[in-house]
Specification:
This is DUF4123 domain-containing protein. Pfam families: DUF4123. InterPro entries: DUF4123. By secondary structure, this protein is of the alpha+beta class. It folds into two domains: about 170 residues, no CATH class; about 100 residues, no CATH class. The protein is about 40% helix and about 15% strand. A six-stranded antiparallel sheet has the order 2-3-1-4-7-8. The protein has a three-stranded mixed sheet with strand order 6-5-9, with no helix packed on it. Helix 5 packs across helix 7, helix 6 crosses helix 7 and helix 7 runs parallel beside helix 10. The longest helix has 26 residues. It starts with about 20 loop residues before the first strand and ends in a 12-residue tail after the last helix.
Length: about 300
């Protein structure tokens, strides 16, 4: 079963040793993506996937499909930024640019199980993991088609998911002149995986908050321990009704000040009480109150790591 929170099979954090010849960039996450391409490549050969579609009016936020030589010096720094931001991924394909563009455009808009149409973030690496998964895990049967391999960056684990097209998924190439009139239907399994992708994106945001404002909390700790601790924090906070990103970020700050939640009953009973209580609406005010209390504890208690303080 696909777990979108799982780490790559390889722990390698370097640029993947795969000869990618296409890169899909998420224009909604990378500001001025087209200008960025011209900064990386003198004459980038790319297509804006919203051009020629009903979404052309918002083309500045569109996915961009770049065709690139595998040995081009601009490719490695490009992929490094994609990994840091999770704003795209690399692919291998034998199809020409027009054909691959047509194939990907088929997945811009999909049909929700309730019948309405929704936009799919096809340039999001975690969304790609879902689409390219086996059907039993929520994947879409012909998502691979012209794609022979993908290199999906993972900022949560600081690595890459390297996948090759299963033999059973290879089929006829897409028709570049094909017009999509009926969006792909999503089933409940796919929808549940995409909801997990949204939660994973929140977890990445919390990890970045911790890395930015509480770097010492990460020192000498295995990344797996940090990710597991943050995920536990997020899930328990959601269960208590802290559903907004702002509230979750406040609890991430508490994690930064005090350490994992399993220490709070001992080192900060009032913070622990707030964390365990059910809150109305999104709980931002209570979460902020807990963060302020945690900050004051670190200022007024004897020096040292809060999670090692001894209480009678």
């Amino acid at each position: 079963m696909l777990d979108v929170f799982s780490a790559p099979a390889s722990g390698d954090t370097r640029y993947p040793d795969v000869r990618a010849n296409y890169v899909l960039i998420d224009g909604s996450r990378r500001a001025e993506a087209e200008r960025w391409l011209y900064a990386c490549f003198d004459t980038p050969d790319y297509r804006n996937l919203f051009d020629g579609t009903a979404w052309a009016s918002v083309r500045q936020a569109a996915p961009l499909l770049l065709c690139v030589e595998p040995d081009h010096p601009g490719l490695e720094p490009l992929l490094a930024e994609l990994k840091e931001r999770e704003c795209g991924y690399a692919m291998t394909s034998d199809a020409p640019l027009a054909t691959l563009t047509s194939h990907l455009q088929r997945f811009i808009e999909v049909r929700h199980p309730l019948g309405h149409r929704v936009l799919l973030r096809i340039a999001d690496p975690s969304v790609a993991r879902v689409l390219l998964a086996p059907a039993r895990d929520g994947g879409i049967a012909d998502a691979w088609s012209d794609i022979t391999g993908v290199m999906l960056p993972d900022a949560l684990w600081d690595g890459w998911h390297i996948q090759q097209r299963p033999e059973a998924s290879s089929g006829e190439a897409s028709d570049p002149d094909r017009t999509v009139t009926i969006p792909h239907p999503l089933n409940e399994r796919t929808l549940n995986q995409l909801m997990a992708v949204d939660q994973r994106a929140t977890l990445v945001t919390l990890l970045r908050h911790l890395e930015t404002y509480f770097p010492t909390r990460l020192e000498n700790r295995p990344r797996a321990d940090v990710v597991l601790g943050l995920r536990t924090l997020m899930n328990e906070a959601l269960d208590s009704g802290y559903t907004s990103l702002q509230a979750l970020t406040h609890w991430c700050s508490v994690f930064g000040y005090l350490g994992p939640p399993d220490t709070w009953a001992r080192v900060a009973p009032e913070v622990h009480r707030i964390f365990r209580e059910r809150v109305p609406q999104e709980g931002e005010a209570r979460a902020r109150e807990a963060a302020v209390l945690a900050r004051e504890l670190t200022r007024t208690t004897t020096p040292g790591r809060v999670d090692t303080w001894a209480y009678p």
